[in-house]
């Protein structure tokens, strides 16, 4: 099992959700977060270095069995690109994949791939 965490542009959320649902991925957790990625240039204001502003983003979390990782990642990428389907833009976001040790459905006590 893997936990897929994507940080995306807030206004791309519906498009990402549509893309995931179309790919058969129907379980999701979403939260409002803020952050910044790589700064391409150092910002200086009146001779002082200025730290980058935090930009509101959406964090999308999806826990999947290993065989669904590629489908999920591809659907997120497809939905999260802000301009062209081919190229994408700076700030379109990032996807992190982490090993997921366990998953338990509270209602039934099922564990692992049956519970996910
Ligand atoms: N290494 C990281 N660790 C934690 N959060 C990150 C990291 N990289 C990106 N993020 C989060 O993802 C959001 C989107 O990142 P962003 O797409 O700007 O990444 P980037 O590396 O700067 O790539 P790009 O050059 O396409 O902008 C950031 O605002 C931040 O919240
Ligand atoms: Mg960036």
From TrEMBL:
SMART domains registered for this protein in UniProt: P-II
GO biological process per UniProt: regulation of nitrogen utilization
Xref: Gene3D superfamilies: 3.30.70.120
Coiled-coil stretches: none
InterPro entries: N-reg_PII, N-reg_PII-like_a/b, N-reg_PII/ATP_PRibTrfase_C
GO cellular component, one term: cytosol
Matches recorded under PROSITE patterns: PII_GLNB_DOM
Gene Ontology MF, one: enzyme regulator activity
Protein name, per record: P-II family nitrogen regulator
Species this chain originates from: Carboxylicivirga sediminis
